[in-house]
């Protein structure tokens, strides 16, 4: 039979197995393969044998092919040219993806990986390194995951999301002691942090350093002492006292002696706290009462002489910016805009944050998106003094609303803000004792709890219901309410009137409550100015296994 003849041998049938074949069928097929000549005598492929070379060359070539090395000869032994041998000495240098893929297979102890080890690093050629890592078998008892290792670690470190638009912060207690968590961090945005971003670290110079912020307003004197942490700061001490520095200011344009004495007593307590704590960096701010009073500069000098504290009278623009910096972490990440308001004792600040083109900005960076702002010369103290705050009738309440609403006409871009609200995704964010009181009454708290109030959402209907409920309360019942008390019982309805004026001018469907504001904004700016938070350089994973 001629070599290469494909005709059937006698006694064989198509598809017949060798074990069941007739007589000498297998032997004949074996001899026919032995007599078959190669098509190309110069071939160096494995298993090719020629006349006179015998089986030794074929066995040698087959063995060389099993180890991945090319054979050097064929039938004539020297048919492979010198150039072919020179090219065969060039080793393939695998790229990074191939090295990582080869290391992944080397680390695996499964039988399937061991069986395919002869294929070398080219087995995963054309696949990315991440895909090769995901293809690795997991050890016994481990759970398989399709998340890459870096993203998996970052996702585990990110805080859990809570609420309709934002994660729930770890808040301090009623006295503000405890942790102010990631919501006060430099990367704070509400909502979960992207998995690919590393959490910032506190610089070595700032570790253990204390910062303080003091806000001397028309009604309150408040101090906050904090220490920077990886995702924000931790409050270590706080102080708050109602001093009513602006009492009678609307009638005389001057700070009264009893009011200044009360403020000086509170400031002396704050000075002692700063000295006892060893605070290194602080900022002390006085707001509307000292701005509007004729004897405001003289009072600032008296404070310096008697307490050693150097207060600065902040401008209205600075006060509005600090309020935004302190509350920015409560901005809904999906919002296109925010109407932020701070109802104070002698003034009220309203800020429009236009976030339609914020491009992922969050935290203190949101102060760059202030589109318009206004500072109204109306607060709970002077409004209650003009209209009365204890026994408020329906007509009295409407008069207070109209008084506050008249000042809103000076707000620039008021029509543009109304159009943005009609487009949707604009919510209110309130930082004042008025909105925290409304939230406490809404939740029916037996005692004011900052953790329940700060960051809470209230629908438009809930706000209306709470205002009506407070209006129906007599003065004595407001005094007995644990969320109001005697210090605010005659001021809370004036604050509700200012809030109602804002809601009627720019109605939003939702309101978020913030028990934070100017002091937190001061702390954030002080720490950011000191470059407290520094991001780690991106972590580069080195491939495991043997590399060159």
From TrEMBL:
<feature type="compositionally biased region" description="Basic and acidic residues">
    <location>
        <begin position="122"/>
        <end position="134"/>
    </location>
</feature>
<feature type="compositionally biased region" description="Basic residues">
    <location>
        <begin position="84"/>
        <end position="94"/>
    </location>
</feature>
<feature type="compositionally biased region" description="Basic and acidic residues">
    <location>
        <begin position="167"/>
        <end position="178"/>
    </location>
</feature>
<feature type="compositionally biased region" description="Basic residues">
    <location>
        <begin position="27"/>
        <end position="38"/>
    </location>
</feature>
<feature type="compositionally biased region" description="Basic and acidic residues">
    <location>
        <begin position="95"/>
        <end position="110"/>
    </location>
</feature>
<dbReference type="Pfam" id="PF02541">
    <property type="entry name" value="Ppx-GppA"/>
</dbReference>
<dbReference type="InterPro" id="IPR050273">
    <property type="entry name" value="GppA/Ppx_hydrolase"/>
</dbReference>
<dbReference type="InterPro" id="IPR003695">
    <property type="entry name" value="Ppx_GppA_N"/>
</dbReference>
<dbReference type="InterPro" id="IPR043129">
    <property type="entry name" value="ATPase_NBD"/>
</dbReference>
<feature type="domain" description="Ppx/GppA phosphatase N-terminal">
    <location>
        <begin position="225"/>
        <end position="527"/>
    </location>
</feature>
<dbReference type="GO" id="GO:0016462">
    <property type="term" value="F:pyrophosphatase activity"/>
</dbReference>
<protein>
    <submittedName>
        <fullName>Exopolyphosphatase</fullName>
    </submittedName>
</protein>
<feature type="region of interest" description="Disordered">
    <location>
        <begin position="1"/>
        <end position="204"/>
    </location>
</feature>
